[in-house]
Amino acid sequence: FAMSSATTGAYYAYMIEFTGFIPNEPEQFSCVSQKCFDLKSSFLLNSGEVNKTFYEVSTICDNGMEQGTDFTWNITRTTFAVDFDKVCKTSALSLLTSIYFVGGTFSLVLSTVLFESLGRRRTAVAAGIVGSLATFIGMFSPNYSMMVVIRLLQGFGNFTAYGGTYIWVLEFVPEKYRVYYNTWSMLIWTTGYPLLVCVSYFIHSWRYIFLALSFVTIVTYIPLIILPDSPRFLMSIGRVEEAKKVLKKYARLANVSLELEGVKLVVGENATKSESVSISTRLKEVLKHGALCLETVLQWYIWFTCCLLFYFLNYGWSSFGDTPYVNYLFAGLGEAIAYVILVPEINLFGRRKGMVFCLGAACVCFLLAMIPWRWNNVWSFERLMNLIAIIFVSDGFALVFLYTNELAPTTHRGFALSSSSIVARFAAFMGPFVNDIFGSYNIIKLAITAFLAGAGAAFTLLLPETKKLPIPEQPQDVAIRRQNQNLPNPCCKCKAEEQQ
Length: 500
Description:
Elements: H1 8-14, H2 16-19, E1 29-31, H3 34-41, H4 57-62, E2 71-73, H5 80-83, H6 90-117, H7 120-138, H8 144-170, H9 175-190, H10 192-202, H11 206-220, H12 222-226, H13 231-236, H14 240-253, E3 266-267, E4 270-271, H15 279-288, H16 290-314, H17 324-368, H18 381-407, H19 413-438, H20 442-460, H21 475-484, H22 492-499
Antiparallel strand pairs: 1-2, 3-4
Helix pairs in contact: 1-8, 1-10, 6-8, 6-19, 7-8, 7-11, 8-19, 9-17, 9-18, 10-17, 16-18, 16-19, 16-20, 17-18, 17-20, 21-22
């Protein structure tokens, strides 16, 4: 119920594919100038019919034809690529996709402060409203520049709202249920694919698609307004009395009597803090505690790799043909399979070995995709391996959310998730451009992605297992956990300090 807002992630990330697409319909434009008619005559076949390739967008772009002057569109679905005259400027459309992640990066920089001061839930509510309003305003966007601002605001709102909601709910969930919660939240994300496809298929105007999605997204944030803050978070910043009130509310909900008068609440083995800690102090503590610093940096690389591979695959489906409706249904199906098998996978391997398995399997898929075997214009062995790879990459992407929240202590969990997400946003910004940069050099592209996945699997071996272990509350707990699992601590001095 609380994670219903996760569906908005798919809407925001991929709605440009359905609202700003390059037209590809038969006889999709008509000539109005002599220049266009002369060009059309050069495409005549012996039968007297016009070669279908004449109506491709490349004809317009390669011959410098101008909309309204040389031709008019006959398309059945509107697209802002036409309205904003960006049909021949695909890099501008790719930028709109990537600028969404720039907005996410800015939001996550700010959310690092807000998660620890304003709180997870309130930050998520405010950010969700920003994203929904931006989507609504997008319906009235008059030009490309305005759409850039809309995408920035969507990224700003969605990533902060999702991160805040995820941390907030996780702090309510006992350890034995965390993996099920993680899987459930990711499955909710995948429902965004068919919903987006259905909305875009039945609504032919890109402006009305923005309108419809704005109403859908705002409804999903209602649970955040109703439910209270996490008692664990409230205790960690010294708001003990408020935490007691929340615990009493949930006790009444569970029909349990709970008396907390005169009871001193503690966070784990450490007494509750008496006051809030600033973000600069959190940052200094990360640098001071070697074990926490090492694990944070390793998590950054894993987040970068999972995010780059995830968006490289999901923004590359158009290169295989078919319609975007079919391609994104396939992508959603692959991700749903990944999240369903996540629970038995984690139960079998644990968090650390599970991550090694996901990234290692993705590495193997990218290596096998180098085999040049094609069955027809749409299907090839590369496409098949990429469809399998998206299962393992999605699996790893889902697991890294859970893993990071269990690795980080409560005092720094907001910082850990926000900073990791910032690193991931840089990777997401690069993802849509990967296929454009390498073009037809598939071997180089697949070799690089295989190396990134393989290195991520190797680095994961330096992290501890968190299965069936309590969430650490303070930075010192991180060093103790590494010592108990015979993992190296980065510096003896820090290790000694943390043990004290």
